[in-house]
Design goal:
The structure holds two protein chains of two kinds. By secondary structure, chain A is mainly β. Chain A has no helices and eleven strands. In chain A, 0% of the residues lie in helices and 56% in strands. Chain B is built from no helices and nine strands. In chain B, strands 1, 3, 4, 7, 8 and 9 form a six-stranded mixed sheet that branches. Classes of the chains: A mainly beta, B mainly beta.
Chain lengths: 123, 111
Amino acid sequence: QVQLVESGGGVVQPGRSLRLSCAASAFNFSNYNMHWVRQAPGKEPEWLALISYDGSYTYYADSVRGRFTISRDNSKNTLFLQMNSLRTEDTAVYFCAREGSREGFSVYAFDYWGQGTLVTVSS
Amino acid sequence: QSALTQPASVSGSPGHSITISCTGTSSDVGSYNLVSWYQHHPGKAPKLMIYEGTKRPSGVSDRFSGSKSGNTASLTISGLQAEDEADYYCCSYVGSSSPYVFGTGTKVTVL
């Protein structure tokens, strides 16, 4: 079955960097747009970033644009999120999610998610 | 883009039906038939329950249904079961460079 497994979370000081990974399995990773979504404690999920199936385009939420970079390695079925200049408000569980599609067209929804990895930004 | 508005909590007895609302604006929910709904048991992966407003993914029970009227989307759970107890979030595509906005979330309790 489709599986997404995030890793790389942890405790980091403000201003430092962290790189998250998301290992995908049981589907043709290179055919799907992928996303990062985060959820701060007690808050709703927040969409962060999108990368196209081939990495040719990316989009970011205003809150992370210029600090975070989404990328992928289709040869290794892995999605990444490079997070720089971290702030205390970046503390959250970070999820990777697959963008669903039907007959080759996006359904503009996230049909599979990982369980998330916790990032805590604290001095 | 502001979060979509959901009731903080909804409860119902086993076998009964509940409806969760998701209120946005004419710029998000009202503009697109692209609302999705997610079930989230804390500590687990969120699960897609409804996409494109009314469609169920394969494997999702037909007890879950979606609808929309104007700027408000709704998720109805009929024949409520204990395993339906979870957090539910709506999400709308908004067509901008930051293309998705989530709802504030609803905790469903089965009495």
